[in-house]
């Protein structure tokens, strides 16, 4: 399997070189040169597999011999052996048409663990195999940071620096990152928004000389390994429904996906292109609804930043959006390069009517207002005795708006509600923290507040790496 850049100025890469490059050296994002196509027979056979077995089959398609199967199996088993639920990503039924895919049973109680436990182990494997230094640089709107740190803390040959927006993540998210005192971990609390953190990351990775001098590697969803790992649970959820619910049979199902950076829903789009019979991909956003506007109007333009009760989606510029543009424009790298140059110069992209029609065939979208998010939490808690975190609540609210009567919809539950107790308490709901989270409040924190400039971050990196 080879990987190419959305902007076409990088020679095809193998899997390991692709995950080490992270952001393509021409500023684009890496994608598979060819998307594997799965037959109906293969899908039927995969229904019988456990989550780790399914992950092994899917990863095997994208690594294609670069990692021996027995070594890849060990990476997969080590990654998902840390999860609290034997199914890794269990599917919970709330009603005959409403299901929740719980993605929060990993070490940090967030869906990011599913990709980052694997990527952390993969980086450790590559470091040992190549005797190389790996310096990970990432940005987080809350969950990526803790998951990434947990995936590599204490690992020999790896150092990690995570940027997060100062005082713009939940308290539990902050504690999960900043109570780690391992020597190979640095937390920088950046004065600004997540978009500022993400911009700094992309610009530092675009500085190829700096990236190579300091051995920088990506942990954010600009890294293609993140996307590939996230496709697995779309397949697994569909198979659980097809296997356990006779009413579904071979029919297609909807997935409602809370998303800010477009990575999680792009993984669903990739699964669909591989052959998974998904009906609708419902894109759920909050009041930072640039993606909703794009799906509805064909205009991609950041608006005014709004702090919400679902802070992990408080994002204006979605880092994975360029990958979708690549496929929307028929894998035309020149068209993508022109569009991204236009976005950099003018701050907006407007697509023609024929492309908008294609977008609306791929996605439905709904932006959830702040109070609507809280109302969904309290409503579902009252009706089903099931507690949603605010991001999952956005997914449920979008599904309620956009799923046709009688359609089965799976909403991706991206985090345990304990991570966002500040929002949940606004509706008078009391919850008990899991023991691992409760213990965080007794630990000292280790972080440094820094300015939101490239130079300020570079100074910290030079001293740390």
UniProtKB/TrEMBL annotation:
Keywords: Lyase, Pyridoxal phosphate
Domain Threonine synthase N-terminal: 2-80
Protein name, as recorded: Threonine synthase
Modified residues (N6-(pyridoxal phosphate)lysine): 112
Claim: Lyase is one of the keywords in the record: yes
Keyword hit for Repeat: no
Family designation: Belongs to the threonine synthase family.
EC number(s) recorded for this UniProt protein: 4.2.3.1
Superkingdom of the organism of origin: Bacteria
PANTHER family: THREONINE SYNTHASE FAMILY MEMBER, THREONINE SYNTHASE-LIKE 2
Domain Tryptophan synthase beta chain-like PALP, chain residue ranges per copy: 99-408
GO molecular function: threonine synthase activity
Pfam families reported for this sequence: PALP, Thr_synth_N
Coiled coil: none
BP GO annotations: threonine biosynthetic process
Cofactors required: pyridoxal 5'-phosphate
SUPFAM superfamilies: Tryptophan synthase beta subunit-like PLP-dependent enzymes (SSF53686)
Species whose genome carries this gene: Paenibacillus whitsoniae
């Amino acid at each position: 399997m080879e990987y190419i850049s959305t902007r076409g100025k990088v020679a095809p890469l193998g899997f390991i070189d692709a995950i080490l490059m992270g952001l393509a050296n021409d500023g684009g994002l890496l994608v598979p040169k060819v998307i594997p196509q799965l037959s109906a027979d293969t899908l039927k056979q995969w229904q019988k597999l456990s989550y780790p077995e399914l992950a092994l089959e899917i990863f095997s398609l994208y690594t294609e011999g670069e990692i021996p199967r027995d070594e890849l199996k060990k990476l997969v088993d080590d990654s998902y052996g840390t999860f609290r639920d034997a199914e890794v990503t269990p599917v919970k039924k709330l009603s005959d048409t409403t299901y929740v895919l719980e993605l929060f049973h990993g070490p940090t109680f967030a869906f990011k663990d599913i990709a980052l436990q694997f990527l952390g182990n993969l980086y450790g494997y590559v470091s040992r195999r190549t005797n190389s230094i790996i310096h990970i640089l990432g940005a987080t709107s809350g969950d990526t940071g803790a998951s990434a740190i947990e995936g590599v803390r204490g690992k020999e040959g790896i150092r990690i620096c995570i940027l997060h927006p100062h005082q713009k993540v939940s308290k539990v998210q902050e504690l999960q990152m900043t109570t780690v005192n391992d020597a190979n971990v640095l937390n920088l609390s950046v004065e600004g928004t997540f978009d500022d953190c993400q911009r700094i990351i992309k610009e530092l990775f675009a500085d190829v000389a700096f990236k190579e001098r300091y051995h920088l590697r990506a942990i954010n969803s600009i890294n293609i390994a993140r996307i590939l790992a996230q496709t697995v649970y779309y397949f697994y959820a569909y198979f659980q429904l097809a296997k356990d619910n006779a009413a579904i049979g071979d029919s297609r199902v909807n997935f409602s996906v809370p998303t800010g950076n477009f990575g999680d829903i792009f993984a669903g789009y990739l699964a669909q292109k591989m052959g998974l019979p998904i009906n609708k991909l419902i894109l759920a956003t909050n009041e930072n609804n640039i993606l909703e506007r794009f799906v509805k109007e064909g205009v991609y333009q950041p608006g005014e930043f709004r702090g919400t009760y679902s802070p992990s989606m408080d994002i204006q510029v979605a880092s994975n959006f360029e990958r979708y543009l690549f496929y929307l424009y028929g894998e035309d790298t020149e068209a993508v390069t022109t569009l991204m140059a236009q976005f950099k110069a003018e701050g907006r992209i407007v697509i023609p009517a024929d492309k908008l029609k294609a977008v609306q065939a791929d996605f439905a979208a709904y932006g959830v207002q702040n109070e609507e998010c809280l109302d969904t939490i309290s409503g579902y808690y009252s009706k089903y005795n099931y507690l949603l975190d605010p991001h999952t609540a956005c997914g449920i609210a979008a599904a309620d708006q956009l799923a046709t009567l009688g359609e089965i919809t799976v909403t991706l539950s991206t985090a345990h509600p304990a991570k966002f107790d500040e929002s949940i308490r606004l509706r008078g709901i009391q919850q008990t923290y899991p023991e691992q989270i409760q213990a965080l409040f007794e630990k000292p924190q280790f972080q440094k507040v820094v300015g939101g400039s490239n130079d300020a971050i570079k100074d910290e990196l030079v001293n740390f790496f």
